[in-house]
Amino acid sequence: MGASTGSGSADGRSTDGGEISERVAVVSGGVGAARFLRALSSAIDPRLVTAVVNTGDDTVLHGLSISPDLDTVVYTLAEAIDPERGWGLVDETWRAIESLERYEQVRPDGSGAAARWFNLGDRDLATHLYRTARIDEGATLTEVTDEIRRAWGLDVEVVPMSDERCSTVVALAPDADGSGDDGGADLDEVSFQDYFVRLRHSVPVAAVRFDGDAMLSATAHRTLESARTIVVAPSNPLVSIGPIRSLPGVDDLLASRRDRTVAVSPIVGGAALKGPADRMMVELGHEPTVVGVARLYAPIASVLVVDPADEHLRSAVEAEGIACVVQPSIMSEPGVARDLAIATLASVGHAVGDAPGPASDGPSAS
After folding, report:
1. In the Cβ-directed half-sphere of 15, how many Cα atoms lie within 13 Å?
2. Cα–Cα distance between 175 and 365 in angstroms, integer?
3. Alpha-carbon distance 260 to 238, whole Å?
4. Which H/E stretch holds residue 252?
5. Nearest-5° Cα angle at 135, 143 to 223
6. CB–CB of 48/22 below 8 Å?
7. Structure pTM?
8. What does the alpha-carbon distance between residue 90 and residue 192 come to, in Å, rounded to a whole number?
9. Cα–Cα distance between 19 and 229 in angstroms, integer?
10. Which contiguous run of DSSP H or E holds residue 271?
11. DSSP for 66-130?
12. Which DSSP symbol is given to 200?
C-alpha cells in the first residue's frame, strides 16, 4: 500500500489527476473484505480504491468508541493485522485488559465496568482513544476515519457507511443456550458484539435487525454514485453487507448501478471461510450456498464471482438472474488473491492495465 501521498480527498475524489471514472468502490465488512481490498490494491493504483465499510458492529466499551470493521480494514491494508486471528494488531499485548481483573471483586452487581470478554490490545487502544477524543471534539466518524487511515499511511480511502448510529441487533432463537460468561438463557435480543464475541456466535439466531435512524453518509453516497465499478466484498451478506443495504436509498442506488456492480461470494463449497455466515443463512431461512448468495445479491449486482468448488452450481446461480464467473477465491496466496481482484473487475468490463503489484504476481492468463 505504501505511504500515503495525500493524493486522495475526503469525498473520494483524486486530487492529482486520477480519473473518477476509473475508481472502484468496495462495499465492505471486516476480514474477508480487508483481504480483498489488499489484493485489489496490488492490482490497481490504491489511490483509485475506496472502501465503504460496515459500522453496524460498532460499539462503546469502557467509554471508548470502537469500530471493528473499520479497524480491521485499516490494519490489514497497513500490513499490521494479526494474520492468525484476522483482527487486532500483530505482536499485540493485553496487559491493560488483563489488569481489569483486579476490579472484578469490587464491581457492584449489574455494573458493566471492567468487562473483559471483549479483548482490546494495548496498542489497539491508541486507535480507540484517538477516535473517541476526536468524536467528543465534534468530528464526524468519516473525518476521524480519514485521519486514522492517513496516520497508518494508506492510499486506499476508507469511508464508514454512515456518521450516525446503526446498530446490528441479533434476536436469539428460543433454544439458544447462552454459552457466554454471564449465561443467557433469558436473552432475547443482544448486540452484535455480544453475539459474535461474548457468545462466540455459537447460539442459534432467530432474526437480525438494524436499529437507528442512520443515513448513508454524503461521502459514501458520492463514492457509490460515481465509481466506475462497485464490488460487494466477500463478507457476511446478512450482518456485514446487510447493515449497509439497510440504510435508506442504498439498494436503490446499487440497483441503478447494477450493470457496474459485481459481488464476490463469501460462501465456498457450502461453507463460510471465516465466521458464521453459513450457519446464519440457514437459521434465517436462506440457502447456505452460492445460490443463496445469488438470491440475496441479484437485485443489486449483475455478476457473482464463485470459487471453482461451486462451478457445478453455475447454472443454478444464473437461474437467479445474475451472471456467474468462476475464479479461485480462497485468498491464501497473494497471486491467487490478486488474480481474483483482476477477474472480479474484468467481469464487469473494468480492464486492468499495468498493475502495481509484484512482477511474480501478474494476472492469470485465463
Report:
1. 11
2. 51
3. 22
4. helix 250-256
5. 25
6. yes
7. 0.88
8. 24
9. 13
10. strand 271-272
11. E-HHHHHHHHHHTT-B-TTTSSSBTT---HHHHHTHHHHTTPPTT--TT--SS---TTHHHHHHH
12. T
- pLDDT tens string for the chain (366 positions)? 443 433 344 343 443 434 446 899 999 999 999 999 999 999 999 999 999 999 999 999 999 999 999 999 999 999 999 998 888 999 999 999 999 999 999 999 999 999 999 999 999 999 999 999 999 999 999 999 999 999 999 999 999 999 999 999 999 998 654 444 444 444 589 999 999 998 888 899 999 999 999 999 999 999 999 999 999 999 999 999 999 999 999 999 999 999 999 999 999 999 998 889 999 999 999 999 999 999 999 999 999 999 999 999 999 999 999 999 999 999 988 799 999 999 999 999 998 875 454 433 332 322
C-alpha cell at 72: 480491521
Cell 439497510 belongs to which residue? 246
CA pair distance 120, 252, nearest whole angstrom: 37
Q: Which residues is 158 bridged to in the sheet?
A: 51
